[in-house]
Write a structure and sequence with these properties.
There is one protein chain. This protein is mostly beta strands. About 5% of the residues lie in helices and about 45% in strands. The protein has 1 helix and 9 strands. Strands 1, 2, 3, 4, 5, 6, 7, 8 and 9 form a 9-stranded antiparallel β-sheet that branches. Strand 2 and strand 3 form a beta hairpin.
């Protein structure tokens, strides 16, 4: 996971990240390859608040999955298409365009595809996790 300077800030300080200052790193092993990640606040792997961004290439897909905590998503750019359910169906998604915000509850089964290079910001309470409905969809299983 790529962490910004927010990880080293002392309590009571602040951080501001202009787009030109964000340094993207490789996405986490829990996501299909091609994603880029930056953590702006906190640490998603630990208890407490976090804010992170993902940059996803055009056509990127995340198979059906769920999270153990509420997911909060703001679309910064591009189109983030979200579908609810256990089966990936690109025609059954709702597009979220730049500026859109959405949230869905813990354990809600959903899937994603993006149109155009898409940047999304996630915030919530850690520890964060992703659980795929089909174990063969989990990239962590294919690297073994």
């Amino acid at each position: 996971m790529f962490l910004c300077a927010a990880q080293t800030n002392a309590p009571g300080t602040h951080s501001i990240y202009n787009v030109s200052e964000i340094q993207w790193g490789k996405g986490p092993p829990s996501l299909p390859s091609g994603a880029e990640l930056v953590v702006l606040e906190g640490d998603p792997a630990k208890e407490g608040q976090f804010t992170m961004r993902l940059r996803l290439p055009d056509g990127y897909k995340i198979p059906p999955h769920w999270h153990p905590k509420v997911e909060h998503v703001t679309v910064v750019s591009g189109t983030f298409n979200i579908g609810m359910g256990e089966t990936f169906d690109q025609t059954a998604t709702k597009p979220m365009t730049a500026g859109a915000f959405g949230f869905w509850h813990a354990n809600m089964k959903h899937f994603v595809w993006v149109k155009g290079v898409t940047v999304v910001q996630f915030h919530g309470v850690g520890p964060w996790g992703i659980n795929y409905l089909n174990p063969t969809d989990d990239p962590r299983n294919t690297s073994k």
